Amino acid sequence: MTKFKALSMAAALLLSPMTTAVYAADSYAIDEQHAWIQFAISHAGWSNARGQFRAISGGIVFDHDDVTNSSVNVVIQAESIDTNLEARDEHIRSPDLLNVEEFPTIEFTSTSIEQTGDRTALITGDMTLVGTTKSVVLDVVWGAEFPLPWDAATIKTGFSATTSINGVDFGINKLVDFGLGPNIDIVMDIEAVKQ
After folding, report:
1. Among candidate residues 25, 34, 28, the one with its CA nearest the CA of residue 12
2. Which residues, in sequence order, are CB contacts of 31 under 8 Å at separation 6+?
3. Partners of 128 in beta bridges
4. Which of left, alpha, beta for 100 (phi over 0: left; psi -120 to 50: alpha)?
């Protein structure tokens, strides 16, 4: 019978099937080439404006025996925002919105993990955005964990997570002035390599 074994981050991480073996907590590094954080925000009600961040790093620790002892930390370089239009990206980087010069990173650090199913969990953590820190909850689905087919020494795991935040709550007050949001839907797809 498959048994929930671990989680982590938002990252988050959930895992793992089978086994009665005893595990210690393992550390993982986010694979920066296989990490995607995307967002959608209402654009004046016409449609949803979408974008992503291209520079993501961080680490995961998870305890296969007790997932509540697991943790995740995700760091996003705010200037790496990409909405498919450089002029718009520059405006988003400005003090009007993300103010990346003063606040170069967006960070999520888990504070607790609750198992909700064999491959699902809720990961609560502190998100720091534009210098404001608030608690958010990631709804996480774990994907899989196994060695790379071409490199048995490299073990990778992965998960997907979603959440929604209110940008004004984080002090991005001009969102509404520009007809945006204020709610921002976030989707994370993260792969991480066992250290």
Report:
1. 28
2. 156, 191, 192, 193
3. 107, 133
4. alpha
Give the pLDDT confidence score for residue 8 in this predicted structure: 38
Exposure string of 152-166, with b = 16+ CB inside 10 Å and e = fewer, is: eeebbbbbbbebebe
Round to whole Å and give the CA distance between 175 and 181: 7
Phi-psi region of 83 (alpha: psi -120 to 50; beta: other; left: phi over 0): alpha
What the chain holds in terms of domains, given with CATH numbers, is: 6-194 (2.40.128.110)
Closest to 60 (Cα-Cα) out of 30, 33, 22: 30
pLDDT band with cut points at 50, 70 and 90 for residue 23: low
72-118-5-32 Cα dihedral, nearest 10 degrees: -40
SS3 of the chain: CCCCCEEEECCEEEECCCCCCCCCEEEEEEEEEEEEEEEEEEECCCEEEEEEECCEEEEEEEECCCHHHCEEEEEEEHHHEECCCHHHHHHHHCCCCCCCCCCCEEEEEEEEEEECCCCEEEEEEEEEECCEEEEEEEEEEEEEEEEECCEEEEEEEEEEEEEEEEHHHHCCHHHHHHCEEEEEEEEEEEEEEEC
pLDDT exceeds cutoff 50 at 6: no
